[in-house]
Design brief:
Elements lengths: L5 E2 L30 E8 L3 H5 L7 E4 L7 E5 L5 E4 L7 E3 L6 E10 L5 E10 L2 E10 L14 E7 L5 E3 L5 E11 L12 E7 L9 E6 L6 E6 L11 E2 L9 E8 L8 E8 L13 E2 L6 E3 L2 E9 L8 E11 L6 E10 L4 E5 L6 E4 L4 E10 L7 E7 L8 E4 L6 E3 L5 E2 L2 E5 L11 E10 L2 E2 L4 E9 L7 E5 L7 E4 L12 E5 L4 E8 L8 E7 L5 E6 L13 E2 L8 E9 L9 E10 L6 E11 L22
Parallel strand pairs: 1-19, 3-5, 16-23, 25-34, 37-44
Antiparallel strand pairs: 2-3, 2-14, 4-13, 5-12, 6-11, 7-10, 7-13, 7-14, 8-9, 8-12, 15-17, 17-21, 18-22, 20-21, 22-23, 24-26, 26-30, 26-31, 27-29, 27-32, 28-31, 32-33, 32-34, 35-36, 35-38, 38-42, 39-41, 39-43, 40-42, 43-44
Length: 633
């Protein structure tokens, strides 16, 4: 069994969203969670200072899923209405009752003259909308010599005929208790009374019981989970298709959770995430991970985090793996279960891509043969042979020659993990290149017994027509990491100013890095020379690999052989003059020529400036562009 488990406990609080109690609430449409409702006791408890600090709405007391552990609290509702409500909910919840009945177990005490009576209205509300009102007749008060006020009465008030109703996020469930009439209380006025009605809540000390509502709901219905490749975001497209012999980076299953309890993170006690065995075998755990509270974070009312399960190459056998999120809250050992679409590990699959040293642009030249190399891997399950046929779609015109090194019946992949390196040769027409396509599409079709068994893969490559030999492209950098470029022989954007100073310390050596790119089709070498150097300055071409100066041959400095579209980096050392009266500023111009065709060349220029430990550069000018300058005289 492949079983992935996440468990954690939650102890901290969250700040609710603000709400206006006086807003009128329209008729609320009923919404149903896809997860089963459970029986809850919603306890009535006192409001703490932490509740007040976190923005709890003004009320006589709170309604919570946490069983009271503190002391007993009481309020009188004889002269003012008692209001109990939940915190602002973080997600929508549907509330109902068993057999359409919600039971309100309330501790109260009616005191007054022996003949006194009263009527108490109890209102069940969603926000400011009344769902149901029950009137309770109160008689036989305590307080007379023959009926002392001792323990409060324990009464069950039943809200009958309750259909499922919605309490929306940013609202609250509320219960109001109000004395609407009284008699025989020796009153001088309606509310000038010798009677009293007290409501007891919290941990009732005399009975070790509580005031509570019995409801059916699912406080966790807003929770969800998603499956991605490692590093993906929550809103990225999910990845449900996986392959036993995929590459190392593609065998990391990232499962993200967003746990939302309407009552906040304190209501969550445990989270488990299961990937069941593909064969349905129970009781075997393949992988488990235990989260601490610090592994997850509160994000927009939800508790979010992820776990990455990395399976061994070939280890996730082919099959369908059901995926479930199981969440427990404070009151239930039986979790709320959220099912996800299963993860599928495939029997057949291919990874088709360009070889590591192969560029994404196909270079073609008249009469020349271009070579492409690919990497083709069977990433499905072991011991499942298949063949793969490669082709160009659409085919090139007849004046092009196309040849795969493909045997009859396609490339054979004997089992999961098999890798081969197919090659493709494309010979261009000798003269007329008008049929050159802008791109080519290489198609890979996996087959078993001549029938396609998994998705077709394809590679789209751009095609660039070039000459057999071409002008080199030069790029100049101030640093070995090639992060600060100061010149380019093809400066189409105008980003580089050859008059901008590059500083060289008076007693040091300036180092610059010249990239020479072969833009022709064939292998070429190049001849380099300095066309212009400031008076009394000197410069040299140096092999960037060995650090040795390149020796001048027949009036220029030779490079090594450079493959098509490849780069050779040359170190240029610049030596400032010793004479203090020599010019501090000057321009260096160099030229690079193709050794195969002396008419093909490129030049580049840059400015060097000798410094004596201090130099200044204008980077901001309050008068805007153009920037001011530093007078170097």
């Amino acid at each position: 069994m492949l079983c992935l488990m996440i468990v954690f406990s939650i102890f901290s609080s969250i700040n609710p969203t603000s709400s206006d109690e006086n807003d009128l609430v329209e008729i609320i449409p009923v919404k149903y969670s896809t997860s089963a409702d459970q029986d809850y006791r919603l306890y009535f408890d006192g409001i703490t200072q932490n509740d007040v600090d976190s923005g709890f709405p003004p009320a006589s007391g709170k309604i919570t899923t946490r069983e009271p552990v503190g002391g007993e609290s009481e309020i009188s509702i004889m002269e003012s209405t008692g209001e109990f409500l939940t915190p602002y909910l973080l997600s929508d919840i549907n509330i109902s009752g068993a057999s359409n009945e919600i039971i309100f177990n309330v501790f109260y005490q009616f005191s007054g003259p022996s003949e006194a009576t009263a009527v108490m209205d109890v209102r069940l509300m969603s926000g400011n909308t009344i769902i149901k009102t029950v009137s309770e007749d109160l008689d036989d008060p305590c307080g007379s010599p023959t009926n002392q006020c001792d323990d409060p009465d324990d009464e069950q008030i039943v809200f009958e005929g309750i259909n499922t109703f919605l309490v929306e996020s940013d609202s609250y469930l509320k219960v109001e208790l109000e004395i609407v009439s009284q008699s025989n209380c020796d009153s001088g006025g309606f509310f000038d009374s010798n009677c009293d009605v007290k409501i007891f809540f919290g941990n009732i000390e005399t009975d070790n019981q509580e005031t509570y509502l019995s409801v059916r709901t699912n406080t966790l219905s807003g929770s969800s989970l998603k499956v991605h490749k490692e590093g993906a975001g929550w809103n990225d497209v999910e990845t449900l298709d996986w392959y036993p012999h995929d590459s190392d980076e593609d065998r990391n299953i990232q499962i993200s959770v967003d746990i939302r309890s309407a009552f906040g993170r304190e209501d969550i006690s445990e989270i488990e995430l299961f990937i069941d065995d593909a064969d349905g075998i129970e009781g075997v755990e393949e992988y488990s991970y235990i989260f601490s509270n610090n592994d997850l974070k509160l994000d927009n009312g939800g508790l979010v985090g992820n776990v990455v399960y990395s399976y061994e190459k070939g280890g996730l056998k082919a099959g369908t793996y059901p995926l479930e999120l199981r969440v427990k809250d404070l009151q239930h050992d039986q979790p709320v279960i959220f099912s996800h679409e299963p993860i599928i590990s495939h029997t057949y699959g291919i990874d088709f891509e360009l070889a590591e040293d192969q560029g994404e642009t196909l270079l073609v030249a008249p009469g020349q043969t271009s070579r492409l190399e690919f990497s083709l891997t069977h990433i499905g399950y072991s011991n499942n042979e298949m063949s793969v046929e490669l082709s160009l779609q659409p085919p090139l015109s007849s004046d092009w020659q196309v040849e795969f090194d493909q045997p009859v019946g396609g490339y054979q992949l004997d089992y999961g993990g098999t890798q081969i390196k197919p090659t493709l040769l494309i010979k261009a027409p000798d003269e007329d290149m008008s049929s050159t396509p802008s791109n080519i599409n290489v198609i890979a079709v996996p087959k078993v017994n001549n029938s396609q068994v998994t998705d077709v893969s394809q590679l789209l490559l751009s095609v660039e027509e070039i000459d057999v030999y071409s002008d080199p492209r030069l790029s100049l950098f101030e640093d070995a990491e090639h992060q600060i470029q100061i010149a380019d022989s093809v400066d189409l954007s105008g980003d580089f100013d050859e008059d901008f100073s590059s500083f060289v310390n008076f007693d040091g050596i300036g180092e610059f890095y010249l990239d020479v790119r072969n833009t022709g089709f064939d292998v070429d070498s190049f001849r380099m020379k300095f066309l212009d150097i400031p008076d009394q300055w000197d410069a040299a071409f140096v092999d960037n690999t060995t650090g040795e100066a390149i020796v001048k041959e027949q009036g220029s400095f030779p490079s090594g052989d450079v493959n098509s579209n490849a780069v050779e980096t040359i170190l240029i050392e610049v030596y400032p003059p010793i004479d203090r009266n020599a010019p501090d500023l000057g321009k260096i111009t160099l030229e690079v020529t193709s050794a195969s065709d002396l008419t093909l060349r490129a030049t580049i220029s840059f400015t060097v400036q000798r410094t004596f430990g201090v130099h200044s550069t204008v980077i901001y000018d309050c008068d805007a562009a153009p920037l001011g300058y530093v007078n170097s005289e």
